[in-house]
């Protein structure tokens, strides 16, 4: 990935489906966005505020069964670093991928 010199925009590799969702609520807008991300096999989540909107989006994706990662290095909180770090700990513990059950 390369970043524009004059902005924070990160450019994904060519050919990757990229969806940038602007929203005014904590939760993801269900129908339209899930129609788009349904085309993806994996979703990377970034944004502000880690301790609110990003966490809510991660919970939505988890509840819907999507494969995703929250890229903490591209997230932040207006409440400060401690809130960002706390949210990332919660996300990694609560929304961690569970091992597949062994059916042997």
From TrEMBL:
Name all Isochorismatase-like domain ranges.
42-94
Q: Which InterPro entries match?
A: Isochorismatase-like_dom, Isochorismatase-like_sf
User: Can you say what this protein is called?
Assistant: Isochorismatase-like domain-containing protein
Q: Which Pfam families match?
A: Isochorismatase (PF00857)
């Amino acid at each position: 990935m390369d970043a524009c010199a004059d902005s924070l925009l990160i450019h994904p590799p060519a050919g990757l489906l990229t969806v940038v969702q602007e929203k005014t609520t904590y939760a993801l807008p269900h129908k339209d966005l899930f129609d788009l991300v349904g085309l993806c096999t994996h979703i990377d989540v970034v944004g502000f505020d880690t301790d609110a909107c990003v966490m809510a989006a991660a919970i939505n994706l988890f509840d819907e069964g999507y494969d995703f990662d929250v890229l903490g290095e591209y997230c932040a909180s207006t409440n400060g670093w401690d809130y960002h770090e706390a949210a990332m700990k919660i996300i990694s513990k609560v929304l961690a991928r569970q091992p597949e059950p062994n059916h042997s």
